[in-house]
C-alpha cells in the first residue's frame, strides 16, 4: 500500500492506495528557471513581450487602473508581484494617488478588508484601497459596443475613465476560455452582468439536447467561441499592459509573462502546457483528485475546475472521488442551487439553463452532467442535501469513499491520482 497525501481546506487528508492499482500520479512536470520568485517577476517586467516597459508607457499626470484577481485566486500570490508593478509606475512619475486597484470579481461576491490585504500584502494595503467590481451596478458601467457574437460589451466605468488599464493575474487551464489570465481580467473580470452571461452562453451547443459545446474546453482555444468573444471584448478596452504569472507544482511562481495582452498570453499558454499539461497513456477506472486546498476548494463552484480536469483522465462509467472541503457550500449564487436541487434529469436542467443562462447554472449543470456520466463521490464538509438530486454521494472520509467504490466495482481498479487537480490537465496520448 502507498500512502497518498492531498490538500483539504487548510489541512491534509492521507489515505492508502494499493500501488498495483496506481496508473499515474499527476502532479505537473518538472520546471525550474533557476530563479527566485522576485527575479522571475523583475525579469519579466524588464523584458515585456511585444511591448515597451510599463514605465515607458505611462506618463506623469495619467491615471492608472491595476486590475487584480479576487480572493478565489489568492493562490496567485499577487502580493509578490503587485509591489514591483507599483514601483515601476512610481519610477515613471506616477504617484500613489493616481493608481487605482480594481478587483476583477466578475459575478463573485464582494470581499472583506482582510481579503483585500491578503491580495495586496500588508504594505500596499496601507497605501491603497481596493475597489470591488460590481457587475450589477449599471450606473458604474459604460457601453462600448457589440462583438461579432452579439455580446453587448458593458465595462467598469472607473477603469474606462483611467488613462491606462494594467491587467494582472495567472494563466491556468480554464473550462470555458481554454486558459485563464489575459483577457479574462476584462471579460468576465470587470464586465457587466449581461456581457458575462451572453459570453458564457456560448458554452452550450446550438440545439436543446446538445449539452455542452465540445469546442469549449480546457486547454483549447481553436474555434472556441467563448475565447474568441472575450478577445473581441478586450479589444474594445485596449489594456495597456499585462502581467501574468504561471504557477509551479509547488504552489510558487514558476514563470511570468508581461507586455502585450495577446502576445504575452500566447507565450504564457505554452508555459502552462509545459508545466501542467501531463501526458497520460490511458484513462482510469477510478480518478481521485484534490482541488488543492483553500481557497481552491472554498466551494463547489470553484472546485468544478478540478472536476473538469478529472474528467479528462476517466474512462466512461468510471468513479470520481473529489476531495474538496467546500466551506462556503455550493458557491456562486442561488442559480447553482436551483439547477442542482430542483430538477431530476439532465435535459430539464439544460432547458432551464438555455431559458436563462448564468455562470452558476452552467457550473451546476456541468457538475450534474459529470454525475450522470460517472459514479461521483465527494469527500467534503458540504451539506449532502445540496447535491443529492444530482446523484452525488457525500462522505466525510476517504475510507468511506473508497469502500463505496470498491464494493460496487471491486478493488482491482486502475487508478489515477490528481493531488493538484485544479491545475493539472491530463492529456491522453494517441
Automatic annotation (TrEMBL):
GO terms for molecular function: lactate racemase activity. InterPro entries: LarA-like, LarA-like_C, LarA-like_N, LarA_C, Ni_dep_LarA. It holds the Pfam family Lar_N. Residues 282-422 form the Lactate racemase C-terminal domain. Coiled coil: none annotated. Residues 8-205 form the LarA-like N-terminal domain. NCBIfam families: Ni_dep_LarA (NF033504). This is Uncharacterized protein.
